[in-house]
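<tokenise_the_fold>
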Amino acid sequence: MKTVIVGANHAGIAAANTLLDNYKDQQVVMIDRNTNLSYLGCGTALWVGRQIDSYENLFYTNKEAFEAKGARIYLETSVTSIDFANHVVHCQKADGTCFDESYDKLVLATGSLPISPKLPGCDLEGISFLKLFQQGQEVDRWMSDESVRSVAVIGAGYIGVEIAEAAKRRGKEVRLFDIAPTSLASYYDPSFTAVMDENLASHGIECHFGERVVAYHGENGRVSAIEAEKGTYPADLVINAIGFVPNNELGRDHLELFANGAYHVDRRQRTSDPDVYAIGDCATVWSNALAAETYIALATNAVRSGIVAGHNIGGTRLDSIGVQGSNGISIFGYNMVSTGLSVAAATRAGLDVCHADFEDLQRPGFMRENASVKIRIVYERGSRRVVGAQMASTEDISMGIHMFSLAIEEGVTIDKLKLLDIFFLPHFNQPYNYITMCALGAE
């Protein structure tokens, strides 16, 4: 059995490792157009902001590791087209050499592409994205340039907020733009994002929310300013972090697509072609909160989808259990985590939801080390099942969100949480735990 995997980042790596480690009859071929694989892009802002010593450890495996397991791997190689009828992948190396790879099973792990608006001036030098390792290197070089004083970040999602913090840590003048009225609007409700917005502003980041960027301006071929709806602002460097779209170029004319262009897959990661699987950011996922197919581009989802596809190709039936889209962020020491749906997201999806809020100290008041914790639990009005949760604090409260992720997956109701057995010790929490108190406050 020969499996060809197109794309060798998180999803492709997970599928390849699953096949190579568990199914010795598998011949695995991996193809990627990049010069490297396994880059943890979520660490780019840490590196650019000098919160870690170097970028080397952001790579967690390499080509040689897969070759040692028996795989053939081609880097700096593009797939130019796929003959789905005859099971052939047409490839071209960086030096122009062309070759073909036949397959029994094909895995598309082509990921996503950054949204790149074609605004006036978009071809100016000094406008970058943060998807690939090379783009991270480019941004880091510009941050080291003393002539780069003003940095404009377009998009206040996770990547945008993180790189805005990184630029500020490098001593730059930073402006953060988004058409949404707050930062992180896709993940949190306004009572949570308001605190993050204050956190950004208090650390010197100039926030321009509810303001669309309409053009780039330059001098001598290099960007010097951006024009937005409410004014024109200096910018020696522009970083676009608007979002991503699925990379469906190779299969969009053959495979069934979701509304946003992602490959439609079943719970075993199979596409509409039974010999083709799609995993990671180019494919859909099943949302347990929505109880429906959706699109959530996260590295954690990519890894899980690769594992599921690998086992099914290898001959072991494994159905995906679905996802909640659990996520988190830490900016200037303020931590926010969420899973499932916010009230706003649930309402947009047509769910009738309620929510319960609570805020208290993490530990009893007599403890010297302490901090406030905000929590919101979102639940469906009729069924009362939990469909989302948000938590925020300067404390590391991240592990708590995993319990809510499992609650959503298992269809747990808000009432089940009211008397949940949660231990108490002053070193960790309060006797009236904020999870319990928030659940008790539900209608």
Summary: Residues 116-242 form a domain with the FAD/NAD(P)-binding domain fold (CATH 3.50.50.60). The radius of gyration is 23 Å. The mean pLDDT is 96. The first helix runs from residue 10 to 22.
